[in-house]
Amino acid sequence: MDVTQLLEEARREFDAGHGKSAARLLTEAAYGTRDTALEAEIRSLALRGRDGAGRFGKGRWDEIIRITELRQAGHAKTEAA
Q: What distances in angstroms separate CA 15 from CA 3, 7, 38, 45, 59, one per listed residue?
């Protein structure tokens, strides 16, 4: 599956209320992309997931957010050089 397919599948899982599955797919997508637009979409979905997560479920969403923020920082550093 490519990153756009992972993102679409994660959206479907998220909309169906399957947060754990959506987070797993988004984590895979976050690691698999270098596209800043896709990273922004992934981060947006992760923020939505984190807002709706329970006390113990926030960590999986935080990991996705962390990955996308690190990638975005790397892009900014590359563009500045």
A: 18, 12, 18, 11, 20
Q: Give me the helix-helix angle, 3-15 and 19-32, nearest 10°.
A: 160
What pLDDT, on a 0 to 100 scale, did the predictor assign at position 54? Answer: 87
pLDDT band at 14 (very low <50, low <70, confident <90, very high): very high
pLDDT at 71: 85
Share of the chain above pLDDT 70, in %: 93
CB 32 within 8 A of CB 42: no
Of 8, 11, 3, nearest in space to 39 by CA: 3
Distances from the Cα of 74 to the Cα of 35, 42, 69, angstroms: 12, 16, 9
Q: What is the DSSP string of 19-46?
A: HHHHHHHHHHHHHH---HHHHHHHHHHH
